[in-house]
Specification:
Layout: H1 2-22, H2 37-56, H3 60-71, H4 78-109, H5 114-123, H6 133-136, H7 140-148, H8 172-176, H9 187-192, E1 206-212, H10 233-246, E2 251-259, E3 274-278, E4 287-293, H11 311-331, E5 336-344, H12 345-359, E6 363-366, H13 371-381, H14 386-393, H15 395-408, E7 411-414, H16 417-423, H17 432-440, E8 450-453, H18 471-477, E9 507-508, E10 511-512, H19 541-546, H20 569-575, E11 585-589, H21 598-607, H22 609-614, E12 616-620, H23 632-647, E13 654-655, H24 665-674, E14 678-681, H25 690-697, E15 702-705, H26 709-717, E16 720-723, H27 728-739, H28 742-754, H29 761-781, H30 795-798, H31 834-839, E17 870-876, H32 882-897, E18 903-909, H33 913-922, E19 932-935, E20 940-944, E21 956-958, H34 960-966, H35 972-984, H36 991-997, H37 1002-1006, E22 1023-1027, H38 1029-1036, H39 1051-1065, E23 1070-1078, E24 1085-1093, H40 1098-1108, E25 1116-1121, E26 1124-1129, E27 1135-1139, H41 1145-1149, E28 1154-1159, H42 1173-1181, E29 1183-1186, H43 1188-1191, E30 1195-1199, H44 1205-1219
Length: about 1200
């Protein structure tokens, strides 16, 4: 009775609406109240068509009950008479439709000629009752009584998905020949995939993959999506990706690195260092884990814009974790290859670049959204200024991080081709045409990342629907998992909650995560605004009336209609907002962000009377406690939504529930499915579109933005309409088109489910790993153009004479600027690094064991640094800084002497090795007191040998492992040639400037250091460009107003910025360091630009040494001698602003290293006001903010003249204790 009552309620509701709104104006009780009868009649025709279509979807019991009530009315009035007639009319149409369906199905099953079937189908009438209104009216009562009898109804054939319900949208030929319309595979992804059946077959080591998603609240279960702007679809994606990758048979372990948060304002799970989200076997190291690492203050949750100063700290911790995990896996007899580091978003992309540069592994990236694109859209909106954008979003820092990620990434995954063309195409580091050329003819010195379109994956395990079988899953489960002899197969693994309990997600033969639950969608009650729970064992009224029974299958061969027996609680939360919750639901689900464009959707709904009449709008905008306590952007959007609801008087038609859980999401999608509604995503730019795919999995047609991911999704799933998100009328028209066309709704609903497995996680991970493997094989097997400076140099091209020989008979031109001693054959041998071998897929048998190794990372026994437990490095910016750095360096040496030989001391300088030795001798320092010299801005690492004369260069040797690491994507010859062209290019030097030069070569004047010193040779990994005052004036005056000297522009820094952009756009990857050198006799500054390989810098050299010799980064102490005394910065005065002569000051101070900032009592450059105005601004740009608020007690300030030995000794003692 409960179902029948609710069924009748639905019919009564629709019939009442039809009588009230759906009849023409001639039936209006008061015609004087109809201002424009023609317009009203046009709207009512839409209403009438819609309401009749809805009633046609319902069971006959409700129609019969409505007719009985009308005929037995005590006061037989006009409305009851019309109600009786309408009831019979709709019933007759339904019966006639069922008859035609049955005839059509019978005809299609008969063995008759195809043309005969088509002719017969043409004659079947699905829209007319066969009886005119005039003929039907007088016989209505009698015919209906005869048909209904005593209340029993004859069973009717159910509408088939490929039958009459879709006839308007499908051709007869397609109904006769129903075939598979599987979406085509992504051409580019397929092109990169290995052609073998299993590209990982025969692999000995398992794969260890590191994913990085830095910001937001990340946990495995009960994700708080929408809690804040940083916890959105990306969080859900990375967690599900980690789980899915761990199930791949070739993958043994996946670590998702994110930030450790111990803020009492958030859940305690975010403070757990490790959380297992999928484990193949109890006690095994394999599976998927969320690993939380310190990044900034632990006890405060920071939004992503405030995490930029802590990026290197997170990278340092990530390097340490990855290295330790490789060792741990090897000791557990499950050796794994660190296969790839995958960064998600700009901040994690920079972290991945830093980690891959130190570990020498493959880096891939997924952007999710891009800074340049966001900047364009925000500026186009006209609601916020560029200064406000910079202050709020730190957009320049984000864009630079994305550029840095492009420099190091081998592959960038995108969800759509549009993202490549319209978003990544805005960046200096990517050019689609150049990328295609470089893939055809690869050159070592030039690189563009490979952009690969792979549809995003979707976790179906928590969806309360049944879906088609996934062919990718069957293929993957047929492959033997990694270390199957040690652990059980991956298919038996179970996801684990943070507390160790097993979650409900499982694997079945029918598809990933599909559980055979009883999932009957509940019924909406007959009274008020609430939802009435059905009795035990009852089917959902909405599903019963709108859907096929469980025994029926869709065109894809699956049953969507499996129901739950009670209404989900979230439906009740939604229904309490609505006057009539039976109406079709137009659903939007996103966080309240301006770019999600929710206000335009509300406007489209409010301005269209037809939409307001036949549908409800449900806005699920994350979770909120109080609007005033939300972030400013979210507060603004919610306020605008409420104002629009009020201005259009949408109360009772719009729902905006305050809270929902992760388990409610599937039920939320099922509400528009049950009410034959629509899902909408009209974001201004949607880079991913996961919600569009989720809606399709639930059989919900979709209206989505034409900007971004939904374009490709619609081409694959064919389940909705694309619209211009800024056109509210187009949005409303698209919604009405689907709502008022039953056959179109059915077609979109079925098509989405039919093709949904194109977005399964099995398919996504299979393609992703095969693309990475294909790219690795392509890089190692493809023939590259190796015209580079190595071995035999092309002396003619460099303008060098025939081989210059030194006294020993060796080639002097191959010296590093002629200042480095020659190496013997024994010294040139490259020691094997065990963990590096593991990372580079070398066999375990290739790793020699040594008694000097303290860990599998290994220590090189013939250098003094191999036996140290701490490293103290003093920054040295050049010869003009030697005197100011002398006292600090001497005190560091004294501190090392008190450490029982456990602390090593070195310098990080921009000079060459010989020049550095000469400077040390000039200021009275002994070379033998040092253990390591990082020179040429990180292009060289020289180490003191354990035996030999440490007081002379012959007792030192270069680190050849470092040379191999930084040689990646570096070709000095090509870079030198392009620098020469850029110096002579009119894009850098304007015509008036060129006229000033006269006959003088611009190369001689602007880039004098490119002229080779034939007696000294050149350095293979270092180029210096010198910019004197005249050169800076020329270049500064030709940068399109961006760096005008004397007008407040930063000449030197702008020249470097422009040069960096030009190199990136041409595919050259280099690290640029600006050095400001005061000249003698005046207050002018000589600028030097140091170019090194992208993996070479002073800060990266520190991390390489720590990684190579098994030292934690906390055991490294950096002493920075700044050029200017600190000044108070910030509103609260807690920050100090310090400046240096080099642009890498922030790199040296950031991270987890202990830093002592040695401060001068007065600026060493004298009065900066006497300097060129442009370079005075450059000096300002070479400053950074430092303070306990950012870095805690890790950074300490000391005066350059004070004795800092005690502080260094205390730090050295603590570092040694931590190392032990």
């Amino acid at each position: 009775m409960a179902e029948a009552s609710a069924n009748n309620s639905w019919v009564d509701s629709y019939l009442d609406a039809l009588l009230s709104y759906g009849l023409s104006s001639e039936y209006a009780s008061d015609k004087n109240k109809v201002p424009d009868s023609d317009k009203v009649d046009a709207d009512r025709q839409v209403y009438a068509k819609y309401y009749v279509s809805q009633i046609m979807q319902l069971g006959e019991e409700g129609i019969q009950d409505a007719w009985n009530k009308a005929t037995s009315a005590r006061h037989y009035g006009e409305k009851d008479a019309r109600l009786e007639y309408l009831s019979w009319r709709v019933w007759f149409m339904k019966r006639n439709k069922a008859r035609v369906v049955a005839e059509e199905q019978k005809l299609l099953q008969e063995d008759l000629p195809e043309q005969y079937k088509l002719d017969k189908l043409d004659k079947l009438d699905l829209s007319q009752e066969g009886v005119s209104d005039e003929e039907a009216t007088p016989k209505a009562s009698d015919q209906a009584k005869a048909a209904f009898g005593d209340g029993q109804m004859a069973p009717l054939p159910q509408d088939q998905p490929d039958g009459p319900s879709a006839k308007a949208a499908k051709s007869k030929t397609s109904r006769l020949h129903a075939g598979s319309n599987s979406p085509p595979e992504t051409p580019k992804a397929d092109a990169l995939m290995p052609k073998t059946a299993d590209p990982f077959e025969g692999r000995v080591d398992g794969l260890y993959i590191v994913l990085i998603s830095l910001h937001g609240l990340v946990r495995g279960d009960a994700m708080e999506l929408g809690k804040d702007p940083d916890t959105g679809g990306q969080v859900k994606y990375v967690v599900e990706l980690a789980r899915a990758l761990a199930r791949h048979p070739a993958v043994f372990r996946v670590d998702l690195l994110t930030r450790l948060i111990e803020d009492p304002k958030v859940a305690p799970e975010y403070g757990q260092p490790e959380e297992c989200i999928f484990q193949a076997e109890e006690g095994d190291l394999g599976g998927a884990y969320i690993v939380r690492l310190p990044c900034g203050p632990r006890h405060v949750y920071l939004r992503k814009e405030k995490l930029w100063p802590h990026i290197r700290e997170f990278a340092d911790n990530g390097i340490q974790h990855a290295k330790n995990m490789v060792i741990k896996l090897a000791k557990a007899h499950t050796p794994c290859e660190l296969y790839a580091v995958h960064g998600h978003y700009a901040d994690a992309g920079e972290v991945a670049a830093l980690m891959s540069s130190t570990l020498g592994v493959e880096m891939v990236m997924t952007a999710h959204s891009l800074g340049r694109n966001k900047l364009e859209h925000l500026l186009a909106s006209g609601t916020i200024s560029k200064a406000e954008i910079e202050s709020t979003y730190k957009i320049s820092r984000r864009i630079e991080a994305e550029e840095r990620a492009l420099e190091c990434a081998s592959i960038v995954f995108t969800s759509t081709a549009q993202e490549i063309d319209e978003q990544w195409g805005l960046y200096d580091g990517f050019d689609k045409k150049l990328e295609a050329v470089l893939r055809t003819r690869r050159r070592i010195g030039r690189h563009m990342p490979c952009m690969v379109v792979i549809p995003p994956g979707l976790d179906f395990s928590n969806m309360k629907v049944d879906l088609p079988a996934d062919p990718a899953e069957a293929e993957m489960q047929s492959v033997k998992p990694a270390f199957s002899s040690v652990g059980s197969p991956k298919a038996g693994g179970k996801p684990t909650t943070p507390k160790g309990t097993t979650s409900g997600a499982t694997f079945s033969e029918n598809g990933p995560g599909l559980k055979p639950l009883n999932r009957n969608i509940g019924s909406i009650g007959s009274k008020g605004m609430g939802l009435r729970r059905g009795s035990h064992g009852s089917l959902s009224t909405m599903e019963q009336m709108h859907r096929q029974p469980e025994t029926q299958t869709s065109a894809a061969g699956v049953a969507l209609a499996q129901y739950i027996k009670e209404d989900p609680p979230i439906w009740g939360e939604i229904a309490r907002f609505l006057r009539n919750p039976r109406k079709p639901v137009i659903l939007a689900m996103s966080r309240p962000d301006a770019k999600k464009n929710i206000t335009t959707l509300v406007k489209a709904f409010g301005e269209n009377n037809t939409l307001r009449e036949i549908a409800n709008l449900v806005l699920v905008m994350g979770n909120r406690e109080n609007i005033d306590s939300m972030a400013a952007g979210s507060n603004k959007v919610l306020t605008q939504v409420l104002k629009l609801v009020d201005s259009h008087d949408l109360y009772g038609s719009v729902a905006y529930p305050k809270k929902h859980s992760q388990m409610d999401i599937s039920d939320i999608y099922r509400l528009p499915y049950a009410t034959r509604g629509i899902f909408t995503n009209v974001a201004l730019q949607e880079p991913f579109g996961l919600t569009v795919i989720e809606a399709a999995a639930h059989g919900v047609p979709t209206v989505a933005t034409k900007n971004g991911g939904p374009v490709d999704i619609m081409q694959t799933l064919h389940h909705g309409i694309l619209v211009d998100p800024t056109d509210s009328k187009a949005i409303a028209d698209a919604l009405l088109r689907i709502l008022t066309n039953s056959s179109l709704w059915d077609e979109y609903s079925q098509s989405g489910v039919k093709h949904i497995m194109s977005y399964s996680w099995w398919s996504h991970c299979k393609k992703m790993l095969e693309v990475v493997e294909g790219e690795k094989r392509f890089q190692t097997s493809s023939k590259m153009d190796k015209r580079r400076l190595s071995g035999d140099w092309e002396r003619a091209a460099l303008g060098l004479p025939p081989k210059l020989l030194d006294a020993s008979g060796q080639d002097a031109s191959m010296n590093r600027l002629g200042s480095t001693p020659q190496l013997s054959g024994a010294q040139k041998s490259k020691p094997v690094n065990p963990t590096a071998a593991r990372i580079s897929r070398a066999s375990m048998t290739d790793m020699p064991e040594s008694p000097t190794m303290r860990s599998p990372r290994g220590r090189i026994a013939n250098v003094r640094l191999a036996h140290k437990q701490q490293l103290i490095i003093v920054q040295h910016d050049g010869g003009f800084r030697s005197e100011s750095a002398f006292a600090t360096l001497q005190q560091a040496v004294n501190a090392a002497h008190t450490s029982d030989g456990q602390a090593a001391v070195g310098i990080a300088t921009l000079l060459g090795f010989d020049d550095a030795c000469a400077e040390l001798q000039r200021i009275g320092m002994k070379l033998e007191d040092l253990d390591v010299v990082i020179c040429h801005g990180g292009a060289d690492i020289w180490q003191c040998k354990s035996s030999g004369d440490a007081s002379s260069p012959s007792g030192w040797e270069p680190d050849t492992l470092w040379e191999d690491l930084i040689d990646w994507r570096w070709d000095r010859k090509q870079l030198q040639q392009v620098l020469t062209k850029l110096a002579e290019s009119p894009t850098l030097i304007s015509a008036p400037t060129q006229a000033l030069l006269g006959n003088m070569s611009p190369l001689n004047k602007v880039l004098p250091s490119l002229e080779q010193d034939k007696q000294r040779g050149i350095h293979p990994h270092h180029i210096t460009l010198e910019l004197d005052a005249e050169a800076k004036q020329m270049l500064g005056g030709s940068t399109n107003g961006r760096a005008q000297a004397g007008k407040g522009g930063a000449v030197s820094t702008s020249v470097v910025d422009r040069l960096r952009r030009r190199l990136r756009s041409n595919g050259y990857r280099a690290h640029l360091t600006l050095q400001m050198v005061p000249t003698e006799g005046d207050a002018s500054l000589l600028s030097r630009v140091h170019l090194t390989p992208v993996r070479a810098s002073r800060s990266l050299a520190l991390r390489f040494l720590a990684n190579k010799f098994g030292l934690p980064m906390q055991a490294v102490t950096a002493v920075t001698v700044v050029a200017t005394p600190p000044s108070v910065a910030g509103k609260d005065g807690e920050m100090l602003q310090v400046g240096s002569y080099t642009s890498d000051l922030a790199e040296l101070i950031s991270g987890v290293v202990k830093v002592f900032v040695a401060m001068p009592e007065a600026p060493e450059t004298g009065n900066l006001k006497q300097l060129d105005a442009g370079d005075a601004t450059s000096m300002d740009r070479l400053t950074i903010k430092v303070g306990s608020k950012l870095f805690g007690d890790r950074v300490q300030f000391v005066k350059a003249g004070d004795n800092i030995a005690e502080a260094l000794e205390a730090d050295s003692k603590m570092a040694r204790q931590n190392t032990r």
